[in-house]
Description:
Blueprint: E1 3-8, E2 13-16, H1 18-24, H2 28-31, H3 45-58, E3 67-69, E4 80-84, E5 90-102, E6 105-114, H4 116-168, H5 173-200, H6 203-207, H7 210-225, E7 229-233, H8 243-262, E8 267-274, E9 281-288, H9 305-315, E10 319-324, E11 330-337, H10 342-351
Parallel strand pairs: 7-8
Antiparallel strand pairs: 1-2, 1-6, 3-4, 4-5, 5-6, 8-9, 9-11, 10-11
Helix pairs in contact: 4-5, 7-8, 8-9
Bound molecules: adenosine-5'-triphosphate and magnesium ion.
Magnesium ion binds next to helix 8.
Amino acid sequence: MDAILSIDEGGHIVMYNRAAEQTFGWRADQVLGQPLDMLIPPRFRAAHAGHIRHFAATGVTSRRKGGVEGGKSGGGEGVVLWGLRADGSEFPMDASISQIDTPSGKLFSVILRDVTERLKARRDLARFATEAAAIREQEKTRFARELHDELAQSLTALKMDAIWVRHHLGADAPLAGKIDGMLALLDDCVASTRRIAADLRPLVLDDLGLVPAIEWLVQSFTQRHGVPCMLDMDESLELGEPHATAVFRIVQESLANVAKHANASRAWVRVVREPAPGGDFILLQVRDDGAGFDMDATRKPQSLGLIGLRERTQLLEGSLRIESEPGRGTRVEARIPVPSSPASAWRAEGAA
Ligand SMILES: Nc1ncnc2c1ncn2[C@@H]1O[C@H](COP(=O)(O)OP(=O)(O)OP(=O)(O)O)[C@@H](O)[C@H]1O
Ligand SMILES: [Mg+2]
Protein backbone atom coordinates (compact mmCIF):
# COMPACT_ATOMS: atom_id res chain seq x y z
CA MET A 1 0.00 0.00 0.00
CA ASP A 2 1.21 3.52 -0.75
CA ALA A 3 1.85 5.99 2.00
CA ILE A 4 -0.74 8.78 1.97
CA LEU A 5 -0.78 11.96 3.96
CA SER A 6 -2.66 15.25 3.79
CA ILE A 7 -1.59 18.70 4.86
CA ASP A 8 -3.54 21.92 5.35
CA GLU A 9 -2.71 25.28 3.83
CA GLY A 10 -0.41 26.04 6.74
CA GLY A 11 1.71 22.96 5.87
CA HIS A 12 0.56 20.93 8.93
CA ILE A 13 -0.14 17.23 8.68
CA VAL A 14 -3.84 16.46 9.13
CA MET A 15 -4.06 12.89 7.82
CA TYR A 16 -1.43 10.13 7.87
CA ASN A 17 -2.15 6.46 7.04
CA ARG A 18 -0.66 3.17 8.26
CA ALA A 19 1.63 2.83 5.26
CA ALA A 20 3.02 6.31 6.00
CA GLU A 21 3.75 5.16 9.56
CA GLN A 22 5.79 2.28 8.17
CA THR A 23 7.53 4.42 5.56
CA PHE A 24 8.58 7.25 7.89
CA GLY A 25 8.83 5.38 11.20
CA TRP A 26 6.67 7.95 13.06
CA ARG A 27 3.26 6.99 14.55
CA ALA A 28 0.24 9.04 13.47
CA ASP A 29 -0.14 10.59 16.93
CA GLN A 30 3.48 11.84 16.70
CA VAL A 31 3.01 13.68 13.40
CA LEU A 32 -0.61 14.88 13.30
CA GLY A 33 -0.65 18.66 13.67
CA GLN A 34 3.12 18.86 13.08
CA PRO A 35 4.68 20.72 10.13
CA LEU A 36 5.36 18.57 7.08
CA ASP A 37 8.99 19.71 7.28
CA MET A 38 9.67 16.98 9.84
CA LEU A 39 9.40 14.43 7.01
CA ILE A 40 11.77 16.28 4.66
CA PRO A 41 15.58 16.53 4.91
CA PRO A 42 16.47 20.10 6.05
CA ARG A 43 18.33 21.03 2.85
CA PHE A 44 15.20 20.47 0.72
CA ARG A 45 12.67 22.23 2.97
CA ALA A 46 12.80 25.70 1.41
CA ALA A 47 12.47 24.36 -2.14
CA HIS A 48 9.64 22.16 -1.02
CA ALA A 49 7.63 25.00 0.53
CA GLY A 50 8.00 26.83 -2.79
CA HIS A 51 6.59 23.83 -4.70
CA ILE A 52 3.53 23.71 -2.48
CA ARG A 53 2.91 27.48 -2.83
CA HIS A 54 3.29 27.20 -6.61
CA PHE A 55 0.95 24.25 -6.70
CA ALA A 56 -1.65 26.00 -4.55
CA ALA A 57 -1.55 29.09 -6.78
CA THR A 58 -1.56 27.40 -10.18
CA GLY A 59 -3.17 24.02 -9.49
CA VAL A 60 -0.54 22.52 -11.78
CA THR A 61 0.00 18.98 -10.62
CA SER A 62 3.60 18.16 -10.09
CA ARG A 63 4.00 14.41 -10.12
CA ARG A 64 6.81 14.61 -7.63
CA LYS A 65 7.55 16.78 -4.71
CA GLY A 66 9.82 16.93 -1.67
CA GLY A 67 13.58 17.16 -1.85
CA VAL A 68 14.70 17.22 -5.45
CA GLU A 69 18.04 15.91 -6.55
CA GLY A 70 19.12 17.06 -10.01
CA GLY A 71 17.95 14.62 -12.67
CA LYS A 72 20.94 13.22 -14.52
CA SER A 73 19.05 12.21 -17.59
CA GLY A 74 17.29 15.58 -17.71
CA GLY A 75 13.92 13.86 -18.04
CA GLY A 76 11.42 13.24 -15.22
CA GLU A 77 12.63 9.67 -14.79
CA GLY A 78 15.98 10.72 -13.39
CA VAL A 79 14.56 13.05 -10.74
CA VAL A 80 14.71 11.67 -7.23
CA LEU A 81 12.97 13.15 -4.18
CA TRP A 82 14.06 12.53 -0.62
CA GLY A 83 12.13 11.82 2.56
CA LEU A 84 13.38 11.83 6.16
CA ARG A 85 12.65 8.94 8.55
CA ALA A 86 12.21 9.14 12.32
CA ASP A 87 15.67 7.60 12.81
CA GLY A 88 17.25 10.42 10.77
CA SER A 89 17.92 8.30 7.67
CA GLU A 90 16.91 9.58 4.24
CA PHE A 91 15.25 7.64 1.44
CA PRO A 92 14.41 8.33 -2.20
CA MET A 93 10.71 8.52 -3.03
CA ASP A 94 8.23 8.93 -5.80
CA ALA A 95 5.31 11.23 -4.94
CA SER A 96 2.21 12.77 -6.45
CA ILE A 97 0.15 15.59 -5.03
CA SER A 98 -3.47 16.64 -5.45
CA GLN A 99 -5.57 19.35 -3.81
CA ILE A 100 -9.19 19.67 -2.72
CA ASP A 101 -11.13 22.69 -1.52
CA THR A 102 -12.89 22.18 1.81
CA PRO A 103 -15.01 24.65 3.81
CA SER A 104 -11.98 25.22 6.04
CA GLY A 105 -9.54 25.86 3.18
CA LYS A 106 -7.42 23.82 0.78
CA LEU A 107 -6.15 20.34 1.63
CA PHE A 108 -3.17 18.81 -0.16
CA SER A 109 -2.91 15.04 -0.39
CA VAL A 110 0.36 13.38 -1.15
CA ILE A 111 0.72 9.77 -2.25
CA LEU A 112 4.27 8.54 -1.98
CA ARG A 113 6.34 5.42 -2.33
CA ASP A 114 9.80 4.51 -1.07
CA VAL A 115 11.83 3.76 -4.23
CA THR A 116 15.10 2.75 -2.55
CA GLU A 117 14.91 -0.72 -4.11
CA ARG A 118 14.08 0.58 -7.58
CA LEU A 119 16.92 3.08 -7.46
CA LYS A 120 19.30 0.40 -6.23
CA ALA A 121 18.21 -1.91 -9.06
CA ARG A 122 18.85 0.89 -11.58
CA ARG A 123 22.32 1.53 -10.13
CA ASP A 124 23.10 -2.21 -10.13
CA LEU A 125 22.06 -2.39 -13.76
CA ALA A 126 24.30 0.56 -14.67
CA ARG A 127 27.20 -1.06 -12.80
CA PHE A 128 26.55 -4.34 -14.58
CA ALA A 129 26.53 -2.58 -17.97
CA THR A 130 29.83 -0.84 -17.16
CA GLU A 131 31.40 -4.14 -16.16
CA ALA A 132 30.04 -5.89 -19.25
CA ALA A 133 31.54 -3.13 -21.42
CA ALA A 134 34.90 -3.55 -19.65
CA ILE A 135 34.84 -7.33 -20.18
CA ARG A 136 34.02 -6.84 -23.86
CA GLU A 137 37.03 -4.52 -24.18
CA GLN A 138 39.27 -7.08 -22.44
CA GLU A 139 38.13 -9.79 -24.85
CA LYS A 140 38.76 -7.55 -27.84
CA THR A 141 42.20 -6.72 -26.45
CA ARG A 142 43.01 -10.43 -26.18
CA PHE A 143 41.87 -11.09 -29.77
CA ALA A 144 43.78 -8.07 -31.02
CA ARG A 145 46.98 -9.21 -29.26
CA GLU A 146 46.65 -12.75 -30.63
CA LEU A 147 46.04 -11.46 -34.13
CA HIS A 148 48.86 -8.96 -33.94
CA ASP A 149 51.46 -11.00 -32.06
CA GLU A 150 50.70 -14.52 -33.28
CA LEU A 151 49.03 -14.44 -36.67
CA ALA A 152 50.75 -11.37 -38.11
CA GLN A 153 54.16 -12.59 -36.88
CA SER A 154 53.63 -16.08 -38.36
CA LEU A 155 52.54 -14.58 -41.66
CA THR A 156 55.62 -12.38 -41.69
CA ALA A 157 57.83 -15.43 -41.02
CA LEU A 158 56.08 -17.28 -43.86
CA LYS A 159 56.77 -14.33 -46.12
CA MET A 160 60.49 -14.40 -45.26
CA ASP A 161 60.56 -18.10 -46.16
CA ALA A 162 58.76 -17.46 -49.43
CA ILE A 163 61.32 -14.75 -50.27
CA TRP A 164 64.11 -17.25 -49.51
CA VAL A 165 62.53 -19.89 -51.78
CA ARG A 166 62.06 -17.29 -54.50
CA HIS A 167 65.73 -16.34 -54.20
CA HIS A 168 66.96 -19.95 -54.51
CA LEU A 169 64.61 -20.96 -57.26
CA GLY A 170 66.78 -19.92 -60.13
CA ALA A 171 65.22 -19.13 -63.47
CA ASP A 172 62.12 -21.32 -63.36
CA ALA A 173 59.67 -18.70 -64.63
CA PRO A 174 56.30 -20.40 -63.88
CA LEU A 175 57.37 -21.26 -60.29
CA ALA A 176 58.77 -17.76 -59.71
CA GLY A 177 55.48 -16.29 -60.93
CA LYS A 178 53.58 -18.51 -58.52
CA ILE A 179 55.81 -17.44 -55.60
CA ASP A 180 55.40 -13.75 -56.52
CA GLY A 181 51.63 -14.26 -56.37
CA MET A 182 51.99 -15.88 -52.93
CA LEU A 183 54.15 -12.99 -51.69
CA ALA A 184 51.58 -10.43 -52.78
CA LEU A 185 48.81 -12.40 -51.03
CA LEU A 186 50.91 -12.68 -47.87
CA ASP A 187 51.44 -8.91 -47.87
CA ASP A 188 47.67 -8.40 -48.08
CA CYS A 189 47.13 -10.91 -45.27
CA VAL A 190 49.61 -9.16 -42.97
CA ALA A 191 48.05 -5.77 -43.73
CA SER A 192 44.48 -7.00 -43.09
CA THR A 193 45.49 -8.81 -39.92
CA ARG A 194 47.10 -5.63 -38.58
CA ARG A 195 44.07 -3.53 -39.60
CA ILE A 196 41.56 -5.94 -38.02
CA ALA A 197 43.65 -6.07 -34.83
CA ALA A 198 43.85 -2.27 -34.71
CA ASP A 199 40.10 -1.87 -35.29
CA LEU A 200 39.35 -4.42 -32.57
CA ARG A 201 41.52 -2.70 -30.06
CA PRO A 202 44.13 -0.02 -30.58
CA LEU A 203 47.05 -1.73 -28.87
CA VAL A 204 48.74 1.65 -28.97
CA LEU A 205 46.18 2.75 -26.34
CA ASP A 206 47.50 0.12 -23.92
CA ASP A 207 51.12 0.40 -24.96
CA LEU A 208 51.59 4.17 -25.34
CA GLY A 209 48.51 5.86 -23.84
CA LEU A 210 45.58 7.96 -24.94
CA VAL A 211 47.31 10.89 -26.69
CA PRO A 212 49.34 8.77 -29.20
CA ALA A 213 46.27 6.55 -29.72
CA ILE A 214 44.08 9.52 -30.69
CA GLU A 215 46.87 10.89 -32.90
CA TRP A 216 47.07 7.50 -34.61
CA LEU A 217 43.29 7.46 -35.08
CA VAL A 218 43.26 10.92 -36.67
CA GLN A 219 46.25 10.15 -38.92
CA SER A 220 44.83 6.87 -40.16
CA PHE A 221 41.47 8.58 -40.80
CA THR A 222 43.19 11.13 -43.04
CA GLN A 223 45.33 8.48 -44.73
CA ARG A 224 42.45 6.13 -45.41
CA HIS A 225 39.91 8.71 -46.54
CA GLY A 226 41.95 11.67 -47.76
CA VAL A 227 40.10 14.14 -45.51
CA PRO A 228 42.33 16.58 -43.57
CA CYS A 229 41.55 16.51 -39.86
CA MET A 230 42.68 19.12 -37.31
CA LEU A 231 43.47 17.75 -33.86
CA ASP A 232 43.35 19.96 -30.79
CA MET A 233 44.36 17.97 -27.73
CA ASP A 234 46.17 18.51 -24.42
CA GLU A 235 49.53 16.82 -24.98
CA SER A 236 49.66 16.03 -21.27
CA LEU A 237 46.18 14.47 -21.13
CA GLU A 238 46.20 11.29 -19.08
CA LEU A 239 43.12 9.26 -18.29
CA GLY A 240 42.55 5.97 -16.51
CA GLU A 241 40.09 3.26 -17.49
CA PRO A 242 37.25 3.12 -18.40
CA HIS A 243 37.53 6.79 -19.43
CA ALA A 244 40.44 6.40 -21.87
CA THR A 245 38.70 3.62 -23.80
CA ALA A 246 35.43 5.59 -23.87
CA VAL A 247 37.12 8.73 -25.24
CA PHE A 248 38.93 6.64 -27.83
CA ARG A 249 35.81 4.77 -28.93
CA ILE A 250 33.74 7.96 -29.20
CA VAL A 251 36.34 9.62 -31.43
CA GLN A 252 36.67 6.38 -33.43
CA GLU A 253 32.92 6.00 -34.09
CA SER A 254 32.46 9.72 -34.83
CA LEU A 255 35.30 9.70 -37.37
CA ALA A 256 33.93 6.47 -38.89
CA ASN A 257 30.63 8.31 -39.37
CA VAL A 258 32.39 11.26 -41.00
CA ALA A 259 34.10 8.81 -43.38
CA LYS A 260 30.93 6.84 -44.13
CA HIS A 261 28.25 9.51 -44.33
CA ALA A 262 29.58 13.07 -44.42
CA ASN A 263 31.49 13.42 -47.69
CA ALA A 264 33.29 16.22 -45.85
CA SER A 265 36.25 18.29 -47.01
CA ARG A 266 37.52 18.88 -43.46
CA ALA A 267 37.09 17.42 -39.98
CA TRP A 268 38.06 18.61 -36.48
CA VAL A 269 38.73 16.67 -33.30
CA ARG A 270 39.10 18.35 -29.91
CA VAL A 271 39.84 16.54 -26.64
CA VAL A 272 40.53 18.72 -23.60
CA ARG A 273 40.27 18.48 -19.85
CA GLU A 274 38.23 21.31 -18.36
CA PRO A 275 38.49 21.99 -14.64
CA ALA A 276 35.16 22.80 -13.01
CA PRO A 277 34.24 23.56 -9.39
CA GLY A 278 32.50 20.20 -8.92
CA GLY A 279 35.36 18.22 -10.55
CA ASP A 280 37.09 17.99 -13.92
CA PHE A 281 35.45 16.79 -17.08
CA ILE A 282 36.64 15.83 -20.53
CA LEU A 283 35.23 17.85 -23.37
CA LEU A 284 35.32 15.93 -26.61
CA GLN A 285 34.20 17.30 -29.95
CA VAL A 286 34.23 15.78 -33.42
CA ARG A 287 33.01 18.08 -36.16
CA ASP A 288 32.84 17.97 -39.97
CA ASP A 289 31.78 20.34 -42.74
CA GLY A 290 30.00 17.62 -44.71
CA ALA A 291 26.49 16.65 -45.74
CA GLY A 292 24.89 16.64 -42.28
CA PHE A 293 21.62 14.83 -41.71
CA ASP A 294 18.05 15.38 -40.58
CA MET A 295 18.01 14.71 -36.84
CA ASP A 296 14.21 14.29 -36.84
CA ALA A 297 14.25 11.55 -39.47
CA THR A 298 13.57 8.10 -38.04
CA ARG A 299 16.64 6.07 -37.29
CA LYS A 300 17.57 3.15 -39.50
CA PRO A 301 17.11 0.02 -37.37
CA GLN A 302 20.61 -1.23 -38.17
CA SER A 303 22.24 2.07 -37.08
CA LEU A 304 23.81 1.54 -33.68
CA GLY A 305 26.79 3.91 -33.69
CA LEU A 306 25.20 7.04 -32.25
CA ILE A 307 23.18 5.00 -29.74
CA GLY A 308 26.40 3.34 -28.62
CA LEU A 309 28.01 6.76 -28.12
CA ARG A 310 25.08 7.90 -25.99
CA GLU A 311 25.22 4.73 -23.87
CA ARG A 312 28.94 5.01 -23.38
CA THR A 313 28.69 8.61 -22.15
CA GLN A 314 25.71 7.83 -19.92
CA LEU A 315 27.50 4.90 -18.31
CA LEU A 316 30.19 7.36 -17.25
CA GLU A 317 27.54 9.86 -16.11
CA GLY A 318 28.38 12.24 -18.92
CA SER A 319 26.22 13.87 -21.55
CA LEU A 320 26.24 13.75 -25.34
CA ARG A 321 25.01 16.38 -27.77
CA ILE A 322 24.68 15.86 -31.50
CA GLU A 323 23.99 18.79 -33.79
CA SER A 324 23.40 18.34 -37.50
CA GLU A 325 21.43 19.79 -40.35
CA PRO A 326 21.37 18.74 -44.01
CA GLY A 327 24.13 20.61 -45.83
CA ARG A 328 25.61 22.12 -42.66
CA GLY A 329 27.89 19.45 -41.26
CA THR A 330 27.69 17.50 -38.04
CA ARG A 331 29.03 18.07 -34.56
CA VAL A 332 29.24 15.47 -31.82
CA GLU A 333 30.06 16.76 -28.35
CA ALA A 334 30.53 14.67 -25.22
CA ARG A 335 31.19 15.89 -21.68
CA ILE A 336 32.40 13.21 -19.32
CA PRO A 337 33.23 13.78 -15.67
CA VAL A 338 36.65 12.39 -14.76
CA PRO A 339 38.68 12.13 -11.57
CA SER A 340 40.52 15.42 -10.97
CA SER A 341 44.12 15.56 -12.08
CA PRO A 342 46.79 16.43 -9.49
CA ALA A 343 47.27 19.77 -11.34
CA SER A 344 43.64 20.87 -11.03
CA ALA A 345 43.42 19.62 -7.43
CA TRP A 346 46.41 21.84 -6.71
CA ARG A 347 44.71 24.79 -8.44
CA ALA A 348 41.51 24.21 -6.45
CA GLU A 349 43.51 24.14 -3.20
CA GLY A 350 45.29 27.32 -4.17
CA ALA A 351 41.96 29.04 -4.83
CA ALA A 352 40.51 27.97 -1.45
N1 LIG B 1 29.07 12.89 -39.59
C1 LIG B 1 27.91 12.57 -40.21
N2 LIG B 1 27.57 13.17 -41.37
C2 LIG B 1 26.40 12.86 -42.00
N3 LIG B 1 25.52 11.97 -41.52
C3 LIG B 1 25.78 11.35 -40.38
C4 LIG B 1 26.98 11.62 -39.64
N4 LIG B 1 26.97 10.87 -38.51
C5 LIG B 1 25.84 10.17 -38.54
N5 LIG B 1 25.10 10.44 -39.65
C6 LIG B 1 23.76 9.92 -40.00
O1 LIG B 1 23.19 9.36 -38.84
C7 LIG B 1 22.88 8.00 -39.06
C8 LIG B 1 23.10 7.21 -37.79
O2 LIG B 1 24.49 7.08 -37.51
P1 LIG B 1 24.99 5.80 -36.71
O3 LIG B 1 26.45 5.96 -36.45
O4 LIG B 1 24.08 5.64 -35.54
O5 LIG B 1 24.71 4.59 -37.68
P2 LIG B 1 25.50 4.11 -38.98
O6 LIG B 1 26.80 4.84 -39.09
O7 LIG B 1 24.55 4.23 -40.14
O8 LIG B 1 25.72 2.57 -38.68
P3 LIG B 1 26.72 1.94 -37.60
O9 LIG B 1 27.41 3.07 -36.87
O10 LIG B 1 25.82 1.16 -36.68
O11 LIG B 1 27.66 1.12 -38.36
C9 LIG B 1 23.73 7.56 -40.21
O12 LIG B 1 23.14 6.51 -40.92
C10 LIG B 1 23.82 8.84 -41.04
O13 LIG B 1 22.67 8.97 -41.86
MG1 LIG C 1 28.12 4.93 -37.41
